[in-house]
Write a structure and sequence with these properties.
Layout (H helix, E strand, L loop, with lengths): L1 H17 L3 H12 L4 H7 L8 H38 L18 H15 L3 E2 L5 E3 H4 L24 E3 L4 H11 L5 E10 L11 E11 L4 H16 L5 E8 L2 E10 L16 E10 L1 H6 L8 E8 H9 L12 H4 L8
Parallel strand pairs: 1-4
Antiparallel strand pairs: 2-3, 4-5, 5-9, 6-7, 7-8, 8-9
Helix pairs in contact: 1-2, 1-4, 2-4, 5-10
GO molecular function: ATP binding; catalytic activity, acting on a protein; magnesium ion binding; phenylalanine-tRNA ligase activity; transferase activity; tRNA binding
Main location: cytoplasm
Subunit structure: Tetramer of two alpha and two beta subunits.
Length: about 350
């Protein structure tokens, strides 16, 4: 029995040495150290041995098992190391290759325009005010001198949710809400950027959703000259120092007097071309002196306070500033279009 155990050890160690794969090694482990292996078979015959021989054979069996297990463990480590080295050799990374360029995002042209205008007016002492896009009829119309029967409501075909709730058609309700918060005490000096909604047919110059920036100043002794000076600074900052402005009489229910504001054409320098329709001027925004009724409804004494307001479409400003001929380009997210603004400084 002793000889048989030593034979099994020699036989197992030879097979361990010859194993070239982890699978073969595991088969050797199961074959010699498993419950049905030859070593176990030998030990089952220990009952025939004398009491003196049994401990010796038991100890020898344990030594044989341990020797085989130790050899298998060492061989397993060697095979695993060889497998890792072989894998590394086949998956070598060439660190000298140039890296793949990562595309960087950039500001949308409308965002550039909004931030540029915000920075300008914040530098002039204005604060940025915001309000809800789902608005009440009162703040959207009535508080701005547009009662329910007013014909000017037809100019703004609106998205109504109920008879009294609608998607705001301009950012003017933010002005009305801000005036209410001031409870008749000036000064008020704000700009109101945001999205607005109108039931318009989308084409090259119209969209059912667009962005506006409106401004409002209320204080004592505010006049049309203050408005003109402010808009002159705006035009020169956004469109260039050589731009000039002109004011034309117009009508808005919430301002009196009201004006349309034009800037001199950048293309022809005011001489007349196809862009400005041979006039030398391009319309950019509407403005005026705040109507006394609007002041009174917000709690301001119209005899003590006066103010001016202006409103512009962000898309129109961007189209003029960057020479874009179709408003829909801003919303189709065509990367080829947006990449053109990577190097524009807002």
């Amino acid at each position: 029995m002793q000889e048989r155990l030593l034979e099994l050890q020699e036989e197992a160690l030879q097979k361990v040495t010859a194993a070239s794969e982890l699978k073969e090694l595991n088969e050797v482990r199961v074959a010699y150290l498993g419950k049905k292996g030859p070593i176990t078979e030998v030990l089952r015959g220990m009952g025939k041995l004398s009491a003196e021989e049994r401990p010796k054979i038991g100890a020898l069996a344990n030594e044989v098992r341990e020797a085989i297990a130790t050899e298998i463990e060492q061989k397993q480590k060697a095979l695993e190391t060889a497998a890792v080295n072989a894998k590394l050799a086949t998956e070598t990374i060439d660190v000298t290759l140039p890296g793949r360029p990562v595309n960087k995002g950039n500001l949308h042209p409308l965002t550039r325009v909004v931030e540029e205008i915000e920075d300008l007016f914040i530098g002039m002492g204005y604060t940025v005010a915001e309000g809800p896009e789902v608005e009440s009829d009162y703040y959207n119309f009535e508080a701005l001198n547009l009662p329910k029967s007013h014909p000017a409501r037809d100019m703004q075909d609106s998205f109504y949710i109920t008879e009294e709730i609608l998607m705001r058609t301009h950012t003017s309700p933010v002005q009305a809400r801000t005036m209410k918060k001031h409870k008749g005490q000036g000064p008020v000096k704000i700009i109101c950027p945001g999205k607005v909604y109108r039931r318009d047919n989308d084409d090259a110059t119209h969209s059912h959703q667009f962005q506006q920036i409106e401004g409002l100043v209320i204080d004592e002794n505010i006049s049309m000259s203050d408005l003109k000076g402010t808009l002159d600074v705006f035009a020169k900052k956004v469109f260039g120092q050589d731009r000039e402005i002109r004011l034309r009489p117009s009508f808005f229910p919430f301002t009196e007097p009201s004006v349309e504001v034009d800037i001199s054409c950048k293309i022809c320098g005011g001489k007349g071309c196809s862009v400005c329709k041979q006039t030398g001027w391009i319309e950019v925004l509407g403005a005026g002196i705040v109507h006394p009724n609007v002041l009174e409804m917000a709690g301001f004494d119209s005899k003590k306070y006066s103010g001016f307001a202006f409103g512009m479409g962000v898309e129109r400003i961007a189209m003029l500033k960057y020479g874009v001929d179709d408003i829909r380009h801003f919303y189709t997210n065509d990367v080829r279009f947006l990449k053109q603004f990577n190097h524009h400084e807002a």
